[in-house]
Design goal:
The chain is built from 14 helices and 2 strands; from the N terminus they run αααααααααααββααα. It has helices spanning about 15-35, 45-55, 70-85, 90-95, 100-125, 135-140, 160-175, 185-215, 215-235, 250-255, 260-280, 305-315, 320-330, 335-354; strands at about 290, 295-300. Bound molecules: fe (ii) ion (2 copies). It comes from Micromonospora echinospora (Micromonospora purpurea).
Amino acid sequence: MYGNDFAPPEDAPGGGLLGEVEAAEAALREAAARARRGGAAPDEDVEAYFADVINADQKIEPRDWMPEAYRRTLIRQIAQHAHSEIIGMQPEGNWISRAPSLKRKAILLAKVQDEAGHGLYLYAAAETLGISRDELVELLLDGRQKYSSIFNYPTLTWADVGAIGWLVDGAAIVNQVPLCRCSYGPYARAMIRVCKEESFHQRQGYEILHTLAHGTEAQKAMAQDAVDRWWYPSLAMFGPPDGDSTHSAQSMAWKIKRFSNDELRQRFVDMCVGQAEVLGLTLPDPDLRWNDERQAYDYTQPDYAELMRVIKGDGPCNRERMAHRRKAHADGAWVREAAAAYAAKRAERKAVAA
Ligand SMILES: [Fe+2]
Ligand SMILES: [Fe+2]
């Protein structure tokens, strides 16, 4: 094993992050077996029912009443997540034709294709909240909904594909494993599958970096340079520090979010230090050191002013990413039209036959 957090249970206390995903999946199955009733009874107070479901760690389903703000929060979060998966295909897609071997190309293709799949599961989960896929795409293309700012950084060398897998997919998993226990059923279920696939992404990135770091001096330098560039943007993926985070408290109360931004960021740092040692690469933080009292690593915070600039549209690749997405959407118009015409024709034939 490569020293990552996805080792088998006997190697990682509590089974590691993937162990947590398995446990969340088992809990979901159990909850489904326990609660077979179809939402609140007609004479039941729907607000009380909602509160009961949340308190009992059960799942809210699309048929259930939910507060409007809960619905809106979920739409915003799931949509942003879906957009990130789709835009996130670009930085790595950029390397598919230049992967150094056929094997590397096949692996990267599969990974980028997985990200498309994640986008689709998540758009489908958002649609259960009463918004259409067309509306969601429009909100992205108009710039009214965001995607993760990490994808506005360029992929300059092949080692960036490794650093993205290790750090960006790694940070994504740390963020997403707790979402497997999110109170909204369709989102929680989508996250279980997404997290399992993300663990493969993290490993493939780690393996690329491991190979480079144990290759020639030039290859090792390329791996180090990629880690130097991706480290702080990856830390910024957890969002602003807890004191400045606007949506956190309510999301925690609704059990959409289970841990604060800073808690998750710390968990990620603590996970990466040992993995970097196995790689033989250095994390670019001279102040990174173990704090015995806190039982965690002290580390330098990312530049949150830069994060805000990139979120607002001023990252190195924001314009390029959106232009590419708009063009892809326009180029795909004939496919959507053809699919809609085919579906209409089939429906018509079915109606005639009936
Ligand atoms: Fe993904
Ligand atoms: Fe991924």
